[in-house]
Amino acid sequence: MEDESVANFAQEWFDELSHHEPVERLLARIAETDLEMAFPERTLYSHADFADWYEAVGKAFADQSHTVEKLRADHRGDLVDVAVTVVWSATQTADGTRSAFRVNQSWQLRKEPGQRLRIVKYRVGTLDRVPVDGRP
């Protein structure tokens, strides 16, 4: 499997998050077993956990965008370890405040039949504030 496939998977994942696509589209990219997704808000272990988290984030933030800055993939048999840096920006629905952060993430993807990739592990690491529209 080419690193291009991993890069395409990551871009599609972030595009779906940015556009707040129906949760079923994202669940199709997430493993049903051995799942662990660690976000700042909480750690998720199932599709039901993800659906609950996704709904809450969708209510808390609007006008989201995710821009991939860096991506590295290391293939190990049926697993792919991914290090990705993304700039996430969003508007908080509670007060209209716009924020942006550079976020380092580490993922583990599993290659399934047909070379389909699914997220098994997903860890959000450091979040560093970046300027929004020229404002710190």
Which labels suit this protein?
alpha+beta; 6 strands; globular; six-stranded mixed beta sheet; 136 residues; 26% helix; single chain
Distance linking N and C termini:
40 Å
User: How much helical structure, as a percent, in the residues?
Assistant: 25-40%
Helix/strand order, N-terminal first = HHEEHEEEE
Put simply, the count of helices is 3
Spatial order of strands in the largest sheet: 2-1-6-5-4-3
What is the global morphology?
A: globular
> Rg from C-alpha positions?
15 Å
| Major sheet characteristics | 6 strands, mixed
Q: List the uncertain runs.
A: none
Number of strands: 6
Overall SS class: alpha+beta
Percentage of residues in strands: over 45%
Mean pLDDT: 93
Overview of this structure, please?
The chain is an alpha+beta fold and 136 residues long. The chain is 26% helix and 47% strand. The chain has helices at residues 3-18, 23-27, 47-60; strands at 36-38, 43-44, 61-76, 79-92, 98-112, 116-129. It has a six-stranded mixed sheet with strand order 2-1-6-5-4-3, covered by helices on one side. It is globular.
How would you summarize what this structure contains?
By secondary structure, the protein is α+β, with helices and mostly antiparallel strands.
Helix and strand topology:
Elements: H1 3-18, H2 23-27, E1 36-38, E2 43-44, H3 47-60, E3 61-76, E4 79-92, E5 98-112, E6 116-129
Parallel strand pairs: 1-6
Antiparallel strand pairs: 1-2, 3-4, 4-5, 5-6
